[in-house]
Task: structure prediction
Amino acid sequence: MNWIIRHKPYFFIILLLMAIGWNVFSDTKQANQYRDQAETFLKNNDIAQAVSFAEKAIQADPGNGYFDYYTAYIYLYKTEDRGKALDLLKAAEKKGYVNGLLYHRMGMCYFHLKNFQSAVAYLYQSIDFNKIELTKAEENKNSSGISSLKKEIADSYVWLTKQYEALDEPSQFIEAVREGLTYNPKDRWLPGLSKKMMLPAGHQAFAEKKYDQALAYYREAKESGAGWDWLDDIIEIVGQCKTKPVVSPVYTHRIGVIYVNETRLIPKSGQIITSPDITAIQKKKAKESQLIFQDIVELFSGGKFSVSFTDIDATLSFDEFSLIRRSNPDNLNLGEFFYTSMNTFDTFVTMSNTESPYFGEGNFGGSRRYPYINGVSYGPARGMVMVSGGSGFGTLLHEFFHTLESLAGIRPAHGFHQPGQFPDWKGTTELDYYRWHFETTLSSLGFDKLNFRNRYPAQPPDPAVFNKIQNFYKNIPLTNRQEANSLVLEAEQIQNKEAAFRLYEKVLNLSPYQPRALEFMISWFKQNNDTARTKEHQAELKEIAAVSDAYPVFDFYHFLKEVKSGIVIGTWSRDTITITGSELSWDAGDYIKYPGTYNVTFLFNEGQKAATIEWAALFENGKLLFKDTHNGWSGNSKRDIVYRLKVENRIKDASYILRARIRGEGGTDSFGEVLLRRVDE
Result:
């Protein structure tokens, strides 16, 4: 008692601390009871009750981060509410409850929330924390602790591979696998993971010009049995890139890479539906592919030919019923860009994930005219490559080579599949085929000729006229322009001028600057002495000519939709036609299976010269069966290119040969396809 009296102030402080401690102990005890009840409900798979009691545990002991950590476990694994789980884990950390597993689970939450950079950071924080704990366990010779911590560290590396795959970081993916295996060689996930990333890691190192590292990855991929046709060639190419000659290009082919970032579907209801397209990861992969592609063409050309890339962002807009193909430039809203910068670029590579119900999947390479005003006014020929967002450098090289084929006149396309077409080529692989052409065909032509900008320059723009017509067409849907161009094709087949006139009136109602319709109307009103209407249409045609290098009579893809329902049965090329005229033959026996009327279409694809078709005829067992004689013109503009032939009776086992007389207009640099289609009558 005397002690209490002498130390009275301290005694009450001690009593207060004891009371607080008792309350804290009491709170923790109550929280643990709630947690135990939550555990019971978890075992019975009653998740809602488990959550309820876990949250009561937090409320019972709000300063103890353990119960936040425990409740986060339920949200992470049982309800899969990763946002709530992450909030609870952060609360536990703030209250001082930390361990390696807490940081690991934070990384898992960020992964599921697609915040991969944060996921990586927290997984490494988990690894670093557990490495310190592992050192302590090893010092204390705690064998169970050592085993447990090593498994936790290895598991964090497994989760790191998920992040690096999502971030398209294959070399770091492989490094995480290797690090994880040092801690747990018997891990059930890690041993098989690195195989699938060995090739992408090789590509990444190749793009970064880390040739030795790329070779190591590629060779390891080969040893693991990677099934990639190009692997042996790529290993050889990477080895040669280490000592390739100094790059001093005769010509640098300028490529504009159009990334479709967004698509907009414009339905008849008018409510625009917007969807994201190319992703940041796809852009990253595309740039990697471009660097590898550049290395390869520089190697194949001995440093005499190179490429450069410029990024172009675009939005793809299309009406509900418009006909599009993946990344069709007519839908890219880049008319003004094409008009003002056409002389800056040789080729455009368009990347999109868009699929069209009319054309299905696939990539494309070649050349075409790009739209200044969609469906109405087009520029000079430029290279055209269209690829999907996930395409690699192999696809880019393959499709770009088709563009070079269009410049160099190389036939046939895909010659590496047709042995004997190039007798001097002794190789067997696709890459070797490209190398051979660079070293022979392309070098003999001259690498300076592998350009569009200088060979086919765009005319100087007239901004005032362009803006006037472009603004005019902003209110005219592309579907109207497509329909107008389709009607032009129909009108050109009509012999009755009055009937054609009525059809051309419909055309101009749909697309008032449609140039073929304007040409017809000028002729019509001249003949009918209507000076005012003649001058009106002449002024309109003059305006459209001022902002056009060409004005096709149809939308390219719409026309293909119409005629390519037929079958390609043959081709013509500069090797088969002459300027005086050549008679060409194609076997049609496999395609004429029934009696009826057949349309034969002569479709110019590329080249500098149009082809004139004088007549087309069908022979049955060597005897003339039917002949259609009229002059058709097939070039960048097309007139009367459809020939109609009739088969009254299809004779079994008879031979059917299609013949036509074709001449090059002022030259033979002309390539096209001959299509056959039975007409439903």
Summary: Residues 157 and 256 are 39 Å apart (CA to CA). The longest strand covers residues 251-266.
